[in-house]
Amino acid sequence: MAAKTSNLYARIEPNVKAQAEGILTALGIPVSNAINMFYKQIILHRGLPFEVKLPPSTLPDITRMTETELDAELEKGYQDMLAGRTKPVDEAFAEIWKDCQV
């Protein structure tokens, strides 16, 4: 007679595990059921059941800039400041965090 279940061992970041298990507990879903549902969705979708991609970035990647390019970006920011094209810091960070949600 074949086994009705199989064991799965996975390494998970502790904070990710705790947050996910807290949500599953609030929903009344045991972790094993959630993993089983995830695997069934992989089968139904014949792949991951969600899109996997990097979030859009509107910020320049200064690690890939030359010194001249970095100076040009800094100058644009300085000119924006002089022209009054600014926004409150809370609003600026809210936009950044919205774009960086994971």
From TrEMBL:
GO terms for biological process, alphabetical: regulation of DNA-templated transcription
Pfam families from the UniProt entry: RelB
Name the record gives this protein: XRE family transcriptional regulator
